[in-house]
């Protein structure tokens, strides 16, 4: 598709080397997602529908912009939209907007994509504005997600950078969500403005007295970030979690995120356990596990509240819920 003198189209396997050069031109070897530097790996990921890049080219076929849809959640039908990169000489052109618009059209037509989300950084509101234009809905805020050093070249951040999680549903998946008593006001607020329906039921069950806890941990060294994903909660939940938290602390992580299934009747009690360990509200992650997930988070040190710029009243209210929970 040609617009404003640029061709915006889906990645082809022959583009992989050009993508690597694009990232080297802007970041050197420092971009944290290393697959973009390895043409063979990027091609394999594209063939497996793990990565679906979209490129912007000039009339002489030079790649000047990149963005991608990719899987980053347990549910294979939920894709993240991100990794957008535009050469510095083209940042005052329509390239970034054209890439975003084309990506939304591709996502709406590709089989296997149930929902889409983006982590819209809060050192500015550009991404949040674009996502709102394409009917994304804010459901969570990841506090201090990225180190400020990641934005050193563009000098757009002082301190760590938070991100608003913004979701868009393509395939409706109504289901039951259990609401922790401590967040009985937050859940209705999020779902009343969401683009899919849920049945909200109070979470009153205790931690199961049987079964084993299943969790996975992923550490992002460059961001000093750890993500602990709770797939199942069993009788050994507290012991297993404490072991996982000690492991990520030993790896010098300063941000710890926990993703839980809000379809589990015991989520309320699980969140009480986390709150005793100084975790606080993050928000709701639609279709994270196929069914919805819930984010809790811990920040070692004082969060960079002053660096959070938000575009909508809805996002501002989500941050109020989060700060109130952090302070208690």
List keywords for this structure.
Aminopeptidase; globular; 15 strands; 8 helices; alpha+beta; 5-stranded mixed beta sheet; single chain; 8-stranded mixed beta sheet; 31% strand; 328 residues
Looking at CATH, which topology of the domain at 175-327 would you report? Answer: Aminopeptidase
Structural class: alpha+beta
β-strand amount? 25-35%
Query: What series of H and E elements makes up the topology?
Result: EEHHEEEHEHEEEHEEEHEHEEH
Largest β sheet strand count, sense and barrel closure: 8 strands, mixed
What is the helical fraction, as a range of percent? Answer: 25-40%
* N-to-C CA distance: 52 Å
The DSSP helix count reads: 8
For the secondary structure, the number of strands is 15
Apparent shape: globular
In which order are the strands of the major sheet placed? 1-2-3-4-5-6-8-7
Give me the Rg, rounded.
20 Å
Mean pLDDT: 93
CATH class of the domain at 175-327, please?
Answer: Alpha Beta
**Poorly predicted ranges:** none
CATH architecture of the domain at 175-327: 3-Layer(aba) Sandwich
Provide the fold topology.
Elements: E1 2-3, E2 6-10, H1 16-27, H2 39-47, E3 51-57, E4 63-71, E5 78-86, H3 95-109, E6 115-121, H4 126-133, E7 137-146, E8 161-169, E9 175-179, H5 186-192, E10 198-202, E11 214-220, E12 225-232, H6 237-250, E13 255-261, H7 267-276, E14 280-285, E15 293-299, H8 313-327
Parallel strand pairs: 5-6, 9-10, 12-13
Antiparallel strand pairs: 1-2, 2-3, 3-4, 4-5, 6-8, 7-8, 11-12, 13-15, 14-15
Helix pairs in contact: 1-2
